[in-house]
Write a structure and sequence with these properties.
9 helices, elongated, two-stranded antiparallel sheet, mainly alpha
């Protein structure tokens, strides 16, 4: 299966801004801030509940249900991953052999695919959600900075009975011109335009960081959620080959 990402960084900043790949990346990272928490909570709850109740025979059906729940959560992430890769990512799960509840428990919880699902849904959740959040926050800050000339005059603060209008990019405890200050106090249109120009440049450049982050996230998801090696692959290849008695045209 071709697992090459559909996202490309081989574009100039303007073309990248206008590309579907950038906005697909934004949506992928942004949606993970909601969907990721949802599937993480469900997968973690299912795994912990199954582990706690596994010490009793009554907990065996719960283990089977927990494995099915984790698999469903993984399918949700596989569905989210489809726009990010050239081919769909599918999982390979071992077929249950034998009958009875014990056979289902053994098959499902000895299946490496189940543990790879848990590794992504639970183990990788915190580092991925934090990385995505930081990148999205900086991207939105630069995007908001571009619009600063429109609203720079709206914020205000009162210092020693004097009301100052402007956006504080720093620390000005005694007003925009008082002592002990650092940074830039945007209280004029030229200052706002200067900051907007800087944010525009940073925004265009940071788009590469955002797309690279989405590619990294998708690569981790793909490596853990894709099908592993099929233990019957070689046998299937032999069966698919034409036999010595095959009719030749």
């Amino acid at each position: 299966m071709n697992t090459e990402s559909q996202l490309s960084l081989r574009r100039d900043p303007v073309r990248l801004l206008l590309s579907r790949g950038l906005w697909r990346s934004v949506w992928y990272l942004l949606a993970y801030q909601a969907v990721g928490w949802f599937v993480f909570a469900i997968a973690l709850s299912a795994a912990l509940t199954g582990a706690l109740l596994s010490i009793t025979l009554a907990g065996l059906p719960v283990l089977v249900a927990a494995a099915a729940t984790i698999r469903w959560c993984a399918e949700v992430e596989r569905a989210r991953l489809r726009p990010m890769v050239t081919e769909p990512v599918t999982g390979y799960y071992c077929q249950v052999t034998g009958s009875g509840i014990m056979a289902q428990v053994r098959t499902r919880w000895r299946d490496p695919a189940t543990w790879r699902d848990i590794a992504y849904l639970v183990g990788m959740f915190i580092p991925l959600v934090v990385l995505d959040f930081v990148v999205l926050t900086l991207w939105l800050v630069f995007l908001a900075g571009i619009t600063l000339p429109i609203w720079y005059w709206a914020p205000w603060q009162t210092v020693h009975g004097v009301r100052y209008h402007g956006y504080d990019l720093g620390y000005h405890p005694n007003g925009p011109h008082g002592p002990g200050a650092w940074g830039l106090y945007v209280d004029t249109l030229p200052k706002a335009l200067l900051v907007a120009a800087a944010c525009l440049i940073l925004f265009l450049l940071f788009n590469y960081v955002l797309v690279a982050t989405a590619r990294l996230h998708a690569a981790i998801a793909r490596s853990l959620l894709r099908a592993g090696d099929d233990p019957l692959r070689e046998a299937k290849e032999v069966l698919d080959r034409p036999g010595p008695l095959a009719i030749r045209g």
